[in-house]
Amino acid sequence: MAQQTTRSLSHLDWLEAEAIHILREGVAEGRNPVMLFSAGKDSTVLAHLAIRAFYPSPPPFPLLHIDSTWEFRSLLAFRDAFAERHGFKLVVYANEAGRAAGLNPFDHGDAYTTAMRTDALKQALDRGGYDIVFGGARRDEEKSRAKERIFSVRNEHHGWDPRQQRPELWRIFNTRLNKGQSLRVFPLSNWTETDIWAYALSRGIELAPLYFAEPRPVIERNGALIVVDDPARLPLRPGESATTESVRFRTLGCWPVTAAIRSEARDLASVVRETLTAGASERQGRLSDREGAGSLERQKREGYF
Q1: Domain membership flag for residue 228
Q2: Do residues 185 and 211 share a domain?
Q3: In terms of Cα–Cα distance, which of 263, 299, 244, 276 is closest to 109?
Q4: What are 172-221's pLDDT values in tens digits?
Q5: What is the pLDDT of residues 264-284, one digit of tens each?
Q6: CATH classification of the domain holding 34
Q7: In whole angstroms, how far apart are CA 216 and each of 22, 125, 210, 230?
Q8: pLDDT 10s digits, 168-181
């Protein structure tokens, strides 16, 4: 009998295999799946995993981007180029009522996030009639996300109740849905920030330029470095002026409330090295997270993420 040999799977190989299994399971059990795509590092890696999962056929779902109307301009350009290059149908949705009302992160804070992120997402899901919604959230990002199941049941209003979530013992997933329910599915649940960077490096995945250091115009506000992405839309406070610094981002959101970090990491290998020695969480760059304890969990219960 010929001796059989098996190749040892690396940590990243195991994570990749698990994510691909989850993607295929969701598609097999779903009626009308969709993948949320912000063009950030997590959703970009997730989209690449989908390409691998269904190759040589294209992934059997569109990408859905919720446009807050305060996105980084270069991120929107990356989003459009990515979808075109990889043959994805791209669905872009914005809360036009919120846009018309002039909602913005400077003056409206949490109300802006609710209207332009949470409400917009729920409107887009209702409009598309999606039952399986793939997202790039990871459990290591924030404490409310750490409570999340991989297959997360949402009610008819897209709300999340942690007490109603199903056990997932031995990677067995329950995909049955009652009328009006949907599932948020998170194939990257068990990944860390370092895993994302390392996987992108090992697979040669192109990420948005904002993740790499370069000289950018910034203002320092409340101890945070804010990149002036659109000077015409940034109301400067007394005494503020923009300076140029070498900065990059670990996390991306609406540009007026997303802090950059000083850095010289201009390629993925340098970013991985820098991440391994970082002493702060990537979510510290999301200024909206500082609005109060429980804010993210409340948004999650209302349908965000």
Answers
A1: yes
A2: no
A3: 299
A4: 898 999 999 999 999 999 999 999 999 999 999 999 999 999 999 999 98
A5: 999 999 999 998 887 665 555
A6: 3.40.50.620
A7: 39, 36, 10, 12
A8: 888 889 899 999 99
Give the residue-averaged pLDDT of 95-119.
92
176 and 38 together in one domain: yes
Q: What is the pLDDT of residue 115?
A: 94
Is there a domain that residue 18 lies in? yes
**Domain shared by 119 and 68, yes or no:** yes
For 115, which DSSP code?
Answer: I
Q: What angle do CA 84, 48, 252 make, to 5 degrees?
A: 85
Contacts of 239 (CB under 8 A, 6+ apart): none
Distance CA 279, CA 30 (A): 40
Q: Is residue 140 included in any domain, yes or no?
A: yes
Same domain for 130 and 218, yes or no, is: no
Q: What residues have CB less than 8 Å from 124, skipping those under 6 apart?
A: 64, 66, 91, 93
Give residue 123's pLDDT: 96
- By residue count, the chain amounts to 305
**Continuous segment of H or E residues that includes residue 225:** strand 224-227
- What pLDDT was estimated at residue 131? 96
Helix (H, G, I), strand (E, B) or coil at 36: strand
Residue 6, in any domain of the structure:
no
pTM: 0.90
Host domain of residue 263: 207-289
Arithmetic mean of pLDDT, 229-254: 91
